[in-house]
Write a structure and sequence with these properties.
alpha+beta
Protein backbone atom coordinates (compact mmCIF):
# COMPACT_ATOMS: atom_id res chain seq x y z
CA UNK A 1 0.00 0.00 0.00
CA UNK A 2 1.20 3.48 -0.79
CA UNK A 3 0.38 4.54 2.77
CA UNK A 4 3.25 2.35 3.98
CA UNK A 5 5.61 5.15 2.87
CA UNK A 6 6.94 3.22 -0.10
CA UNK A 7 8.41 0.52 2.16
CA UNK A 8 7.13 -2.23 -0.13
CA UNK A 9 7.87 -0.45 -3.42
CA UNK A 10 11.19 0.41 -5.08
CA UNK A 11 12.66 1.45 -8.41
CA UNK A 12 15.12 -1.46 -8.33
CA UNK A 13 14.41 -5.08 -7.44
CA UNK A 14 17.71 -5.51 -5.59
CA UNK A 15 17.06 -2.52 -3.30
CA UNK A 16 13.63 -3.87 -2.40
CA UNK A 17 15.00 -7.39 -1.86
CA UNK A 18 17.65 -6.05 0.53
CA UNK A 19 15.00 -4.08 2.40
CA UNK A 20 12.74 -7.12 2.76
CA UNK A 21 15.63 -9.37 3.86
CA UNK A 22 16.14 -6.95 6.74
CA UNK A 23 12.42 -7.01 7.56
CA UNK A 24 12.44 -10.82 7.72
CA UNK A 25 15.56 -10.94 9.92
CA UNK A 26 14.19 -12.16 13.25
CA UNK A 27 17.38 -11.05 15.02
CA UNK A 28 16.51 -7.39 14.37
CA UNK A 29 13.87 -5.78 16.57
CA UNK A 30 11.06 -3.84 14.88
CA UNK A 31 12.42 -0.52 16.17
CA UNK A 32 15.88 -1.41 14.87
CA UNK A 33 14.79 -1.81 11.26
CA UNK A 34 16.26 0.70 8.79
CA UNK A 35 14.49 3.96 7.97
CA UNK A 36 13.66 2.58 4.52
CA UNK A 37 11.11 0.40 6.35
CA UNK A 38 9.61 3.26 8.37
CA UNK A 39 6.18 2.64 6.86
CA UNK A 40 6.16 -0.87 8.31
CA UNK A 41 7.27 0.24 11.77
CA UNK A 42 4.36 2.47 12.69
CA UNK A 43 0.63 2.05 13.08
CA UNK A 44 -1.60 3.11 10.18
CA UNK A 45 -5.37 2.84 9.95
CA UNK A 46 -5.89 -0.73 11.25
CA UNK A 47 -2.30 -1.85 10.57
CA UNK A 48 -0.51 -3.19 13.65
CA UNK A 49 3.19 -3.32 12.73
CA UNK A 50 4.26 -5.54 15.63
CA UNK A 51 1.53 -8.15 15.14
CA UNK A 52 1.98 -8.15 11.36
CA UNK A 53 5.72 -8.73 11.60
CA UNK A 54 5.33 -11.42 14.28
CA UNK A 55 2.86 -13.25 12.04
CA UNK A 56 5.10 -13.00 8.97
CA UNK A 57 8.17 -14.15 10.90
CA UNK A 58 6.23 -17.06 12.39
CA UNK A 59 4.58 -18.20 9.15
CA UNK A 60 7.11 -17.41 6.45
CA UNK A 61 10.51 -16.34 5.28
CA UNK A 62 11.75 -13.83 2.77
CA UNK A 63 11.08 -15.12 -0.74
CA UNK A 64 12.88 -13.28 -3.56
CA UNK A 65 10.25 -14.59 -5.99
CA UNK A 66 7.73 -12.28 -4.29
CA UNK A 67 9.61 -9.22 -5.55
CA UNK A 68 7.51 -8.54 -8.63
CA UNK A 69 7.45 -5.83 -11.29
CA UNK A 70 4.32 -3.73 -11.81
CA UNK A 71 3.34 -0.63 -13.73
CA UNK A 72 2.34 2.42 -11.74
CA UNK A 73 1.36 4.15 -14.97
CA UNK A 74 2.47 3.64 -18.56
CA UNK A 75 6.27 3.44 -18.80
CA UNK A 76 6.63 3.83 -15.01
CA UNK A 77 7.74 0.39 -13.85
CA UNK A 78 8.38 -0.28 -10.16
CA UNK A 79 9.03 -3.33 -8.01
CA UNK A 80 6.82 -4.45 -5.14
CA UNK A 81 6.96 -7.19 -2.53
CA UNK A 82 3.71 -9.15 -2.71
CA UNK A 83 3.08 -11.33 0.34
CA UNK A 84 -0.23 -13.15 0.53
Amino acid sequence: MVMRSQSLIADEASALADRMKAYFDADVELAGLPDSLAGLKREWARFDPKLTRQTLLRDGVFDPALVQPFLVRPFDAKWAYFET
